[in-house]
Amino acid sequence: MSVNMNHLEVFMKVAEKMNMTEASKALFISQPAVSKALIQFENTLQVKLFIRDKQNGLVLTEVGKEMLSLARQMKEIEDKMVQLACQENKLLRGKVKIGSFPAASTNLLPEAICLFRSQYPDVTIELMEGNSNQIKQWVEDRTVEIGIVASPFDHYDVHILEHDSMVAIMPENHPLQAEHEVSLEQNRNDLIFCKGGHESAVLNTLHEQQIPFQESLTVQTAETLVHMVQKKLGIGIISKFTLSSVSHTLIVKEIIPQISRDIGIIAHSFDEATPAAREFVKALGQLYRSSE
């Protein structure tokens, strides 16, 4: 049994789009050609990769999910071979697929991309944004090759880029405006939390300090948190790193207990990453590598 690489490419694109029409547009071939290639690929493997449901459309089978992960690994190997050959000829080409959460995209990536492009103008960068948990899953299933996430970093290879800590934000004329620090325990019923990757650090510290947590109001983005605090709905708890990416006029206070986390770039293995990905990690490290 030999795998047709064109069929593999079609399978990956259909799995990405979960729509035959969209996949055909992305591949610049007809929809019947996509369907034919997919059927031939399934026949070669002698497995069903998709369930074709009239109500839900295309759904990957369990073996289809495993095949997709392997297909992405094969694509990574192919990219690595091409990039190694280009590197040997002093010309790096290819694509780096990066996952990042919005604050990291704002604070870290622009300068890093500028530096990287000045050195490797022929490498394409594809950026996907989500929260830290989503990005870890994208790295896990190889949707992206490298990801910028907040700790914990689980089992991945990691380079620490920034040390970060949580702070409290409040509007002007708040009763705690004169206080140097905000106690999470004393103000636990008035806190607004942001779930944009902060929750692990916050919940772990509250548990360790045996501080009861009452989830009265939680939001998904820093912008929403700032807006809620501006409307005097409570005291916002957010990381300094994330807050620096949002425009605001709120009062910022340290918190008790202190809550810290790290920002890092992760991969399955930096040693096994494509040359382009390794060079991008190097560019990030030159600009932001924190003393660990």
Would you kindly provide a written description of the structure presented here, covering whatever features stand out?
With 292 residues, the protein is of the alpha/beta class. Strands 3, 4, 5, 6, 7, 8, 9, 10, 11 and 12 form a ten-stranded mixed beta sheet that branches. Strands 1-2 form a two-stranded antiparallel sheet. Helix 1 packs across helix 2 and helix 1 crosses helix 3. InterPro entries: LysR_HTH_N, LysR_subst-bd, WH-like_DNA-bd_sf, WH_DNA-bd_sf. Keywords: Coiled coil, DNA-binding, Transcription, Transcription regulation. Pfam families: HTH_1, LysR_substrate. Belongs to the LysR transcriptional regulatory family. This is LysR family transcriptional regulator.
List the helices and strands and how they pair.
Layout: H1 5-17, H2 20-27, H3 31-45, E1 50-53, E2 57-60, H4 62-88, E3 94-100, H5 102-107, H6 109-119, E4 123-129, H7 132-140, E5 146-150, E6 157-170, E7 181-183, E8 191-194, H8 199-208, E9 217-219, H9 222-230, E10 235-239, H10 240-243, E11 251-256, E12 260-267, H11 275-288
Parallel strand pairs: 3-4, 3-5, 7-11, 8-9, 8-10
Antiparallel strand pairs: 1-2, 5-12, 6-10, 6-11, 6-12
